[in-house]
Amino acid sequence: MSLFIGMMSGTSLDGVDGVLVDFWAGATRTMSSAHLPFPAALRAELMALQAASENELEREGLAANELAKVYAECVRLLLEKGGMKAADVRAAGVHGQTIRHRPELGFTRQTNNPALLAELCGIDIIADFRSRDIAAGGQGAPLVPAFHQDMFGEKGKTRVLANVGGIGNITVLGADGGVSGFDTGPGNVLMDLWIGRHKGQDYDADGAWAASGKEVPGLMQVLLSEPYFAQPAPKSTGRDLFHATWLDKQLKGFESAAPEDVMHTLTRLTALTLADAIKAASSGRVDGVYLCGGGAYNGTLKGMLSAELGDTVKVKSTEALGVPPNHVEAMAFAWLAHRFDERRAGNLPAVTGARGDRILGALYPR
Predict the structure, then answer these.
(1) What is the three-class DSSP state of 131?
(2) What residue ranges define each of the domains in the chain, with the CATH number in brackets?
(3) Predicted local distance difference test score (pLDDT) of residue 351
(4) Looking at residue 118, what DSSP letter applies?
């Protein structure tokens, strides 16, 4: 049995991405894929649970049940599209929905009900991938660099994988086989927040609204004063830091700025922090930068990143490496489930800062 499912619902809270992957004989082949947007009520509740609120334990439990139903529907679609049955699948790796990520306090919380999901699907479920790395002194994130190394590494070439979900993170695959990576800061999270506030939209399609504005003088310096950007790796972040209150604090004194100009500036913040991280982590020697996550579909962001990196660095999407940008993270959790099944380590201590290699995840048998 070499078939594994991976499902990811990220910081952008746009829904669930799922893939059915065959790892037969060391190869990685996608058999089917699916995306399910969150129902509006569930998305609103998951967003509300990002911060302390009344009766949040019960509300989280109920949201986890609803989330498991969305995951189960995604599994059903993946099996149907792939022409498979539940019994054909070895296990499903399910990330869950992060509502707290506080490695400095020794915990992370990914809302999920893997026991219910195992009941609904009749498939072994592997969940809670981040906790063991944190228990070993690591950040619990990013976890995808180990998969990036296995999937995209090529001896003699330095490649950078830049994932732009709600939060941005990079993986530097060195020509010598070395790997480094960390969260760079906001990906889409601030942009999504801003366009939601001013236009009632979930995201800025292709960066069109950002492209209509110009940079707000002086605002970038204020945004970049956030200490996280200067913090050395290993490091990870999330909505616990980059949220509406943080943004409103930075915008004090800029209330007269046009909303589209703020959007332009926030988009460039993501591009600039990604570019600075890539330059620092790779010593400027890069054979290619490959975007994945929702940000890979933002043409304005891609253009800004290219401008920051210069003409000598080609910025493409992971499509150029054979994997659609919106499949990469889901594939990573299928891969992590496969690693768990083989009782092999799934983390990279050089990336997360953990004390050593650890098998990641917890099993909920079918």
Answers:
(1) helix
(2) 3-141+327-364 (3.30.420.40), 144-313 (3.30.420.40)
(3) 96
(4) H
